Task: inverse folding
């Protein structure tokens, strides 16, 4: 993958050196973390843009995983070699926002360029996440996903369950899991991104606070509150499922992802961005459904929270670079490009216009399940569900992993683990607040 | 050492000039980064380095207020001692057998040296695959024999996994040194002992092992340093410090805080602490263990 794009860019460079253009093109460097089929998608986007005009040339470079790309961007900034555009995953958002000298807000870049740019055209649960409390859009939403529920229809049939009826509530998930186990399934249910699916999205889905200050969107002085009665109840339910072998823990981050398309686990909660992989690799009939919820909770289901990444504009570049960046972002947010990307990857369409365009094309009718993630996100958000944006979020997620592992191992109760995770997580928030006084 | 020969340089410049290239390499690749680490450990920076403030010993205070950091000293001790002791013992055994004139000795030697070329992270992934609870070959065999292997939730098994991976990675290095050490032991000594009726086991303990002690001592120091510094890749690939913090050894936290969490000050403070531990351990080894070494 990487060598292919290297050869491509080398040959492009060779061509460029032979055909001297009438006026020099401005080169825009973009560092990203998209590999495999997603990397090909990025390269096609760049090619589409470069072919559409002559003034700027965007060069996309793959820099490794999300954390690796962020680290590379930071190291480059410190050395004065930063790219123009850096792709940063959602947990790095607060870090980027706090680094005021290192970035230029996208709202400013677009305004200075004089191009037409309307932030209100963006899906609010997406754009709101990347917008400062003062209303300025800080980064460009790029690949946004959310948490959804996947299930194996063939396994459902084998267990005597109705394959066309996905479990709607957590009680139904537990019942389905029990039947799957009785039919000999070794892994009825598992989950990827445990903090994101079972606590962050879970809280927003039930319109319950994850952290104070509007889940951290309102300022650096937010503190965690995910040890409330509903979250404790849910983790307890999962603990009970784990004890009976109905929920099988498959590791941190997205380690569980592979267990669904391989057929090992019959139900999985994970990123909507996994759909492309499942489409390609699953050798069975699968279904996609909204995240399960507790039906006795008033206001549920609300909406789920965003994941994925956005594009940040780095500071310290010449003025003509920013013009190029603005023109590229303008291209990226056109409804046609957005809709195409959404169909191709399973990531969310970021603008309402793109969603409507996709709907009109009849895509959702031909691909049942492709609109599940969109429908979970395009609702009117509340202060408790708009999104979760916290400093040192990466560490907080690791702390949640560590404490919940004690629950699955039977060493701590749900309440103990969540209390401890909140206490340890708050230390991280205090540290972040002290380091980023504004 | 009365028979020591002293070579005296006439000019003081020649020895200095001869030392200069090596000193420059150590200076650039060790002393300079180490000095920077010490400096950073007293600073607090945002991720991009746009603002830097001196915070005194605050980074260190934060560390020692964290109970889990104190606990990771214990984890690190268990890990490092196991890696050094078992790593050295197994390599010595392998080298001792490979040194004997057997058919195909060269093949065995080559195969035993191979793992050294493997990067730590790759070693971690390799062992992870063998022991992956659902798809691993070894995990499957263990389950068949009644052992429920799940290092994702069982801390002792997770620790065992990273110890095995770390030892496997280092065996080749130890093996090479032991093999060289063994081949320098005069055959006549061993033959003489054999004629006197000493069995292989006794010959090993009374002749070979003492004559190998300089090599063993050198490897002990090297292996401790290895276990303390070079093993974060294995931990990151195999367990990510989990379950809980059961395999979060000190150097893994340095890597995690510095490269993933972007807390350079805190990470630098931890590096300084590990560096001091290793310095103290090395001094202690030279002071006490070296007395038992026959050169």
Result:
């Amino acid at each position: 993958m990487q060598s292919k794009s290297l050869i491509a860019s080398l040959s492009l460079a060779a061509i460029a050196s032979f055909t001297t253009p009438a006026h020099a093109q401005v080169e825009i460097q973009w560092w990203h973390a998209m590999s495999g089929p997603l990397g090909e998608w990025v390269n096609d986007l760049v090619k589409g843009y470069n072919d559409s005009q002559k003034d700027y040339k965007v060069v996309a470079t793959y820099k490794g995983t999300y954390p690796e790309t962020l680290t590379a961007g930071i190291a480059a900034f410190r050395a004065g070699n930063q790219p123009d555009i850096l792709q940063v995953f959602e947990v790095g958002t607060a870090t980027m926002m706090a680094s005021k000298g290192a970035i230029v807000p996208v709202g400013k870049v677009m305004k200075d360029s004089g191009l037409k740019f309307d932030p209100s055209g963006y899906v609010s649960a997406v754009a709101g996440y990347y917008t400062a409390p003062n209303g300025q859009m800080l980064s460009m939403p790029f690949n946004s996903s959310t948490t959804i529920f996947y299930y194996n229809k063939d396994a459902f049939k084998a267990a005597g369950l109705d394959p066309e009826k996905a479990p709607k509530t957590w009680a139904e998930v537990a019942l389905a899991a029990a039947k799957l186990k009785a039919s000999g399934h070794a892994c009825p249910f598992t989950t990827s991104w445990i903090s994101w699916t079972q606590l962050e999205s879970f809280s927003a889905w039930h319109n319950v606070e994850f952290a104070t200050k509007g889940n951290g969107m309102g300022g650096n002085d937010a503190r965690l509150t995910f040890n409330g009665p509903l979250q404790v109840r849910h983790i307890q339910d999962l603990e009970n499922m784990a004890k009976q072998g109905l929920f099988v823990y498959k590791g941190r981050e997205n380690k569980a992802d592979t267990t669904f398309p391989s057929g090992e686990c019959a139900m999985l909660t994970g990123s909507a961005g996994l759909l492309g992989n499942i489409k390609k690799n699953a050798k069975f009939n699968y279904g996609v459904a909204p995240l399960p919820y507790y039906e006795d909770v008033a206001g549920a289901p609300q909406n789920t929270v965003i994941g994925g990444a956005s594009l940040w504009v780095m500071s310290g570049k010449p003025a003509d670079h920013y013009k190029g960046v603005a023109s590229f972002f303008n291209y990226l947010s056109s409804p046609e490009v957005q809709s195409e990307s959404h169909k191709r990857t399973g990531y969310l369409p970021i603008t309402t216009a793109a969603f409507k365009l996709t709907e009109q094309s009849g895509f959702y009718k031909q691909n049942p399940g492709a609109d599940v993630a969109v429908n979970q996100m395009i609702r009117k958000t509340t202060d408790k569900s708009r999104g979760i944006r916290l400093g040192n979020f990466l560490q907080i997620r690791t702390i949640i992993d560590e404490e919940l592992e004690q629950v699955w191992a039977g060493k701590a109760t749900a309440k103990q683990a969540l209390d401890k995770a909140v206490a340890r997580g708050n230390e991280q928030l205090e540290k972040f607040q002290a380091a980023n006084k504004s | 050492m009365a028979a020591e020969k002293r070579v005296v340089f006439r000019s003081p410049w020649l020895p200095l000039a001869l030392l200069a290239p090596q000193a420059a390499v150590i200076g650039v690749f060790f002393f300079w980064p180490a000095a920077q680490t010490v400096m950073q450990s007293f600073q607090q920076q945002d991720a991009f380095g746009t603002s830097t403030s001196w915070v005194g010993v605050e980074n260190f205070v934060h560390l020692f207020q964290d109970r889990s950091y104190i606990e990771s000293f214990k984890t690190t001790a268990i890990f490092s001692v196991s890696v050094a002791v078992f790593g050295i013992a197994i390599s010595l055994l392998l080298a001792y057998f490979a040194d004997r004139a057997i058919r195909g000795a060269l093949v065995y030697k080559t195969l035993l040296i191979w793992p050294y070329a493997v990067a730590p992270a790759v070693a971690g992934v390799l062992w992870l695959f063998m022991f992956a609870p659902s798809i691993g070959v070894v995990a499957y065999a263990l389950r068949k024999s009644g052992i429920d292997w799940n290092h994702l939730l069982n801390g002792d098994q997770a620790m065992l996994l990273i110890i095995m991976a770390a030892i496997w990675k280092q065996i080749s290095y130890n093996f090479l040194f032991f093999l060289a050490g063994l081949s320098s032991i005069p055959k006549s000594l061993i033959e003489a002992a054999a004629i006197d009726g000493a069995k292989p086991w006794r010959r090993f303990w009374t002749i070979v092992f003492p004559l190998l002690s300089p090599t063993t001592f050198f490897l002990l120091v090297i292996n401790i340093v290895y276990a303390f510094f070079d093993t974060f890749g294995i931990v990151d690939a195999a367990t990510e410090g989990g379950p809980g913090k059961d395999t979060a050894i000190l150097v893994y936290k340095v890597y995690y805080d510095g490269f993933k969490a972007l807390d350079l000050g805190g990470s630098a403070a931890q590096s300084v602490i590990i560096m001091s531990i290793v310095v103290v351990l090395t001094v202690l080894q030279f002071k006490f263990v070296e007395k038992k070494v026959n050169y």
User: Anything to note?
Assistant: The radius of gyration of chain B is 23 Å. Chain B touches chain A at residues 44, 46-51, 62, 66, 134, 152-155, 240-245, 256, 259-262 (CB under 8 Å). The mean pLDDT of chain B is 88.
